[in-house]
Amino acid sequence: MDEVNMKTTVLPLLLPLLIFAGLFPAGCSPSEPEKHPLYLKAAQLRSEGNPVEAEGYLRRYLERVPDSAPGHLALASLYDETLGNPTSALYHYEEYLRLVPEDAADRATVEHYRQLVRAKLLKELSGEPLPVVPVAVLAAENRQLRRTNDQLKRYIQNQNRKIAELLNGAPASVPSPSVSSGPRTYTVRQGDTPGKIAQRFYGTASKYPKIMEANHLTGSGNLRVGQQLIIPE
């Protein structure tokens, strides 16, 4: 008998009871399904051997609490183990896996059930069995993903720390380029006057006496085109 049909012996029989009793880890659910009357009624009907009626109550429960991971797991188990509906079982297994945290203790086990029911469904459609990933392989892959995730987190933290250190150690402003200690010079052009030259360098024509004094000029008539003038600070 292959694994798809056998699905082991003990855990599948206990799974429905553990789910309804709230003993099977199923992530966090704010609705606390084990206290909800519809969920409790479904558990009672299933234990009494009425899976069809139990299905109806679970479906009504999920209509009210669509994000209940335990509710999806209970309905998936009911479809898979009792009602023989692999299509619906696959959907609710996938909804459960979508809702629970990545590190949920039972995630690898439920993923294995999802693989089994998927293989069963595809076998029915194609007539050929498909390989099922063992739980041990899935668990190893989950561990590797967690390690990789931790490494990425540490890398990002280190990079953020280095960036912060660089920012904290950087000067408040970029220093201005050094200015030559030698005097500024200017070549006189046609139409220049001491006032115009002062306006160009100092922003005001009133400082023209500084230029005249630095160049020993007695008047604007002393300026010649091409003459080199010293422009004091």
UniProtKB/TrEMBL annotation:
Task: Keywords in alphabetical order, please.
Answer: Coiled coil
The question of whether Secreted is a record keyword is answered with no
Q: What is this protein called?
A: LysM peptidoglycan-binding domain-containing protein
Biased composition, class Low complexity, residue ranges: 169-183
Q: Where is this region: Disordered?
A: 169-191
Any matching Pfam family:
LysM
Per the record, the coiled-coil ranges are 138-169
Residue span(s) of domain LysM: 184-231
